User: What shape does this take?
Amino acid sequence: MALAVEGKASMLVLLAAIFASLQVCIASVYTVGDSAGWTSIANVDYKQWAATKTFQVGDVIYFQYNPQFHNVMQVSHAEYRSCNSSSPMASHTTGNDSITITRHGHHFFLCGVPGHCQAGQKVDISVPRTSSLAPTATAAASPSAHSTDAAAPASSPSSAAPSPTLMGRLQQLGLSMALLAAFA
Ligand SMILES: [Cu+2]
Assistant: This one.
C-alpha cells in the first residue's frame, strides 16, 4: 500500500518534471522532505527543500510521517517564525496528509509536537502570484542547464546572452534564499 502510493507519487513527480520542462501547466505532487519525509530527527533542511521547488496553485503538498511522533499544523507567518502551535488554522494528524494549494502566497506548516519546530520541522510553501515568472527556477534545477552553461562560452564567444541569463538565475536563486532566510 505504502509502496504503491510512493510509486504513484514518484511517477507524478516525474511526469510533472517532464511537463514543466515543456512549460505545460499541470498540478504537481510534492512530498515534503522527499524520501526523508516529515521528520525532526533526519536533519532535513526544509527551507532548502522548498527553495528547489516551483510551487503553483493546484499543486499537492504531501506530508508523510509517523503520526505517533509528528503532526502537521498550518499556521500564520508569526506563528511559523516563533514555532507557536497553540492556535493553528488547520491540523493534520493522519501521517499521510495531502494538502492542495488553492491560492498564491505563503503557506506555513510546522510540527506541533514540542521541540520539533524548533529543531527545524517547519516549512514555508511559497506560491508565486503568476507562474510565468517561475520557469527560470525550473531551468536552473534541470540537468540540461549544466551542459548549456559549459558549452555556451566555446560555441558562441561573441554572444553575451548566456552570462546574463546565468547571472539572472543565480541572482534569483540568491534572492529567493535571502527571502526564505528572512522568513525563518
Ligand atoms: Cu514532529
About this structure: The CA atoms of residues 151 and 157 lie 10 Å apart. The chain is about 40% helix and 15% strand. The longest strand covers residues 105-110.
